[in-house]
Design goal:
Blueprint: E1 3-7, H1 14-25, E2 28-31, H2 38-45, H3 52-71, E3 76-79, H4 85-93, H5 96-99, E4 114-120, H6 123-132, H7 143-149, E5 159-163, H8 168-180
Parallel strand pairs: 1-3, 1-4, 2-3, 4-5
């Protein structure tokens, strides 16, 4: 059973990559944008960046989805910005991660084993993608705030970084290889 979070700033291709990978592997796919509250969507549409207080309930709900898939032994992929280390800790451990820098609380549920796939690339390429996007609540003007917030994954987080400058098939193949060659998980 594998849980993958495809992460990065808005416009990095999380939904496109995650949904393509899930379709190829026959896994469940979730887009974190679908789980934002109406208030969060309204804020972003008005050009107001979300803060931690806006994001924590959303991240806890996403953790619950991943926990459910883990308990049912279902492979799943989530497309989620997961910009800060703390946000990724919440996805791994749920609400207890907010009060602690530890990934697990004694007596709590075990931390989920998640592979974070960071789609990384230059701001100008991503800005160009956002300019072409239609009907999304995230305006291009908020891209700089996303880059300012981004804390790229680092050890001991379980992650790979993939250049979004590659073609979609190349990106999907690179992630697939990481999953199935065991680079991503230490059993």
């Amino acid at each position: 059973m594998v849980l993958v979070v495809v992460m990065g700033v808005s416009g990095s291709g999380k939904t496109t990559v995650g949904s393509r990978l899930a379709a190829k592997l026959g896994w469940k796919f979730y887009d974190a944008d679908d789980y934002h509250s109406p208030e969060n969507k309204k804020k972003m549409a008005e050009g107001i960046p979300l803060n931690d207080e806006d994001r924590i309930p959303w991240l806890c709900a996403l953790h619950d989805i991943l926990r459910r898939e883990d308990l049912s032994r279902q492979d799943a992929i989530l497309a989620c910005s997961a910009l800060k280390k703390m946000y990724r800790r919440v996805l791994v451990s749920g609400a207890p991660a907010i009060e602690s820098n530890q990934p697990e609380q004694p007596g709590g549920n075990a931390a989920l084993k998640i592979l974070f796939v960071h789609l990384d690339g230059p701001i100008d390429i991503i800005a160009g993608r956002l300019e072409k996007r239609r009907g999304h609540f995230m305006p291009p003007e908020l891209l700089k705030s996303q880059f300012d917030t981004l804390e790229p994954p680092s050890a001991p987080e379980n992650f790979i970084t993939v250049s979004l400058e590659k073609s979609l098939p190349e990106i999907v193949l690179e992630i697939e290889r990481a999953i199935f060659q065991g680079e991503a998980f230490l059993e």
